[in-house]
Amino acid sequence: MVVFALISLAVSPAAVTGQSAPVAYTAQVYQAPVVRPFEPPSNFGRVTEEGDGGGDTRLRVITAPVSVEAYRRSYEHAPSRADNAYDAGVNNAERSMDARMGPLDGRWLLKDGEGRTLMTVSLMDQGETRPLEGGYRTADATAEVGPLTTAERSAGVLVLEMGGGRLSLQSSGEGWSGTLAQGDRERAVTLVR
Fold first, then answer.
1. What pTM value is reported for the model?
2. Residue 193 and residue 109 in contact, taking contact as beta carbons nearer than 8 Å
């Protein structure tokens, strides 16, 4: 048994790679959402029906098609105060998160000099203090998808490296312009919303 333990220790990944400590994980750790998912109130199932109100709470057997004229009021009930409060909370959380995001956050189109879309680039910019992350998808028949391997930014300069090449851009007007280097080939491109 001791021999088995020594053998398994000798061939463990830490021994093979020389790793003495866990590798630091840079991805963001899960945090509970600002607004919790819908949770029914404590009196759920014990409230009086909404909508037309009153009447028999049991559904009648449908024996024929129901016409629109058979409905007396709205098809849906008006939202309650709890519904309005929940919707307001979700909207506020979204606006708050959008306000914290940097100017590069979102979906961008990479176009060549003739205006043809070469790829779609999705960036997650959580501000200057956080690393820029993202992925790309080519617009050709292969529709290659992959992550950005490196994303560097400084005052007015953006460099993105991906599986298929290196994108060097400078801020210009409403977008970015620069070059896309793929192997020995380099061409002028623009990155726009």
1. 0.55
2. yes
